[in-house]
Fold each of these.
Amino acid sequence: MTLRDIAVSNLRRRKAKALFVLAGLFIGVSTVVLLLSLVQAMKQNINHKLEMYGANILILPKTENLSLTYGGLSLGGVSFEMQEIKEAELDNIKNIKNAVNIAAVGPMLLSPITVGDKRILIAGVDFQAFQMLRPWWSVKGALPDEEGALLGADAARILGLTTGNSFKVNNKEIRITGVLETTGSQDDGIIFAPLAMTQELLGKKGRISMAEVAALCTGCPIPEMVQQISDVLPGANVMAIQQVVKGRMETLNQFEKFSYGVSALVLLVGSLMVLVTMMGSVRERTVEIGIFRAMGFRKSHIIQIILLEAAIISGIAGILGYLAGFSGTKLLIPFFAEGHGAMVPFNPVMAAAAFLLAIFVGLGSSAYPAFMASRLDPNEALRAL
Amino acid sequence: MKRIQGDNIAKHYGKGEAMVFAVKEATFTIEAGEFVAVMGESGSGKSTLLSILGGLNSPTSGKLMIDDIDVYALGQEERADFRRESIGFVFQNFNLIPYLTLAENVMLPMATLKGSRKRKRDAALHALNMVGLSEKAERLPSQISGGEQERVAIARAIVNEPPIILADEPTGNLDSKTGKDIMGLLGALNDYGTTIIMVTHNPEYAEDAQRVLRVSDGVLK
């Protein structure tokens, strides 16, 4: 016979009360696990989707001039006689610490050309990389191979050209293989052509104007990656596309905060349930506790019995709560996160945290009833006889 | 061996005009190994006196010495240790824990002590054997009679082999034959040298004691 035996025997006898306490903690823990697992799975999902948005790091030549454009509106002073980057230097990006997070590097050579009587911008690009950098592109026709060009929707309209037509630049005839659907971006007014062909056409072999980088990031450090790329490209100005990064973080943070709020509320209700039930249990056991004290149980022994009971129930609630929350997440995630990237793997850290959380809440809520029980006057028990 | 000495022990409840004296300046000595009956009418203060003797109820004034220990000079926790080591209680209503078997009930006073489960169990079975209930060790209190419950309560009181047993009307809820059996048990324990202090209404049972203390309106005579 030990204090643990007394605690276990009491739980067996008062099954209904034990189940009530267990239910309170179970609901709290399973809700927390469910919400946090959902947040985790949705984070993965959102990250995956945001990665589909394309480039999130820009590499530009270093310049001392300020841009005089705002919202696509040119206010003059912008010159295309810009500094350029050596294309070969982009290979250095493969050596940065977070190279594994880089999904695509898209070099781009920009230059104005004249087609007919119209001045227009041509962009020499790596179409293979651009398929990752512009996943939203919808092409009527096909992407060019080594020759040919792809026209933005506005460019095609203004030039009066469409798929299958040709145009001449520097006496070279270029066939249009496809036209982009309207994107609502600067891409609409540009002619896209293969990088090598454009470099040859413009006499800028091995030179590029800029590069776009898509970083595959599930929480990867964009600012650090920007610094790492800057270090290997000292002649370039590397910057993160802040809107994408910040937007991503804000979305996740807001959802996470909401989840924490709901979790805290549910845990509070659960802990109040435990507190009230344990207080009731202590009141019911006044005589019993008095007898223990009369037999020579110290106050600390009474506290140990009550807290042992709470710990046993809390441990069971923690395990069951995690399993229920985990299963619930698996069931619910298809409704919250469509498409790929919403996985719910077994998370041993969260399982351990759920167990410890249940124990912490259970013991925390039982501390006051245990303290009250220990303070019961043994003489009161004798008087009650 | 434990000699009990009460010196001007008083206990009152309430204040001013509402003050009620449960025990008035009781001075007494109970020698080690004595069997003492405490008699008195209901509300006379005998149970209060017993709870004071058991270290459960601090007197308003006076001193209780058990051997050379001033019981109420001890802190609450030290007094709990003292009760565990020196005093066995037999309550009027048995007060067995309903969700524990008879053996577990008897083992209760040893729950806070170190020692193997087997040693504790052997001690409990020995105590149950002394009261003739070792065969029912695995039953619950609800599965035995009132007389048997009282015997289990006695087994629980003696399992730690305390030198003093305080019994509050141990025969109060029992029929005459069972009451006599219980008195026989207490007498046998006293023969082994245990000091017995028993509160009773029944003069017949009080005759089994070596000495009778009478309490009337809180005054010990």
Note: The mean pLDDT of chain B is 88.
Amino acid sequence: MTELDLDFLCAFLKTRSGLALTPEKRYLVESRLAPVCKTFHVETLSELIAGLKAGRDPDLEKSVVEAMTTNETFFFRDKSPFDLFQNVLLPRYLTARATTRRLRIWCAAASTGQEPYSLAMLLSEAASRLAGWRVEIVATDISTEVLEKAKAGLYNQFEVQRGLPIQLLLKYFTRVGDQWQIAPQIRSMVDFKPLNLIKEFGQLGTFDIIYCRNVLIYFDRPTKTDVLKRLANALPADGALLLGAAETVIGLTEDLSPDAVNRGLYEKVSRQAVEPASPRLAALR
Amino acid sequence: MKHCLIVDDSTVIRKVARRILEEMSFRVSEAENGEKGLSACRSEMPDAVLLDWNMPVMDGYEFLGRLRQLPGGVEPKVVFCTTENDIAFISRALDAGANEYIMKPFDKDILIAKFQEVGLA
């Protein structure tokens, strides 16, 4: 693979997925795309990239994007975003939405489903407080391949042991051969959809809580700003955004601000609070 | 420094688990069966026990029942670590007072996650 090939690939990934890949990541490109070469029966990465340049094979383009995006996840990853959900956000919205009895949650980079299913299990544990409520969990990812795995809800022994308390494994999973499958009532709580975050997502509507963790780190600065601004638009005035531990809104947008107490939690900034008074209002004072 | 007792008849498992637990800043001691494990607990009650199920002399299930009867024996967090990966075994272990359950084979991430789950990492 020549330097020009690598430059083309970086630009291609940036346009298609927002992934900001630098030329130092040549090793990552080589290891992630080797299986794609095999699938498409091409000998070298240069040949594969020539196929991308020709622009005539949407399947090849999709496979390259999916192979290069990171899908690592596990149940209750980092623990604190789920403690926050259970101890802060759920009680907050049980009160704030008591009239509508409606709660919408979005996992914006759901990968193989562990994050939305972790939330669904917590909601199931809180079922007695949610009687009569309509709770929606929308889970999106750029990769249709990982979404298929997510929908099936089948995980291997390693996957169910990273972060998932044994009591929840026992309660919500059954053994299917060598694997473990999450219960149908938990699967039915999550609506999986393919979505590329760098494209328009206003059609999904607004969400009370958005989990968008460990995805912005792969974007360059202007893309982060653009995505954060649109995430803010998808929140109501009292909505909550959760980002990954290595991510922030600071220096990227003024539409969101960090919660003073809870790390990783961001809130929508009220426009009235940041916009200067209009000249007319100022004249009346 | 927290103290973890590994009760497992496999020297390989004891060696691998010891290395990971020491990296997690545990003081580690070992016993090759349940009887020796109980004897170690009578001398010094550990903060945690990483416990195999199938062992000669006394299996992990019996060990757990007898440990919980000892003075101070309800205190240690017990994490089963076994090839028994059937739901019935997991249920029995939890009913008997186990705090967590690892299905072999395991890796460092799983061991750390399970010890975090019981509040020891």
Note: Chain B is about 45% helix and 20% strand.
